[in-house]
Amino acid sequence: MESVKELIKTYGLQEDIEYVIIPMPDKDGKQRRCFILKRDFIRVVYPDGQYIDYPLADVIEALVRFPDLLLSEALSLTYKERGIDPQQLKVSSESLDKNSR
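and the corresponding structure tokens:
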């Protein structure tokens, strides 16, 4: 969580006990806020049922850098810039449908 504290300080974000609060510009120029639970990983589930657990620090960075994109797209761009394939982060190659049975 030290890297998260560093990102909060670097980007001037807010936090409380449970959330990292990211100010995001709205299409109308108004401010809105995105609340991200303080967990080690944030799970993104894709339409095909596959999922990837992303580190919280990567989620925060992606949202700050690409606030107008979907989280999955912002994460994809962030990892592409780093030369990392997000599929390498997969915890399980099975879909949620198979796990829920």
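(Above: one complete record from the training split.) Confidence is low (pLDDT under 50) at residues 92-97.
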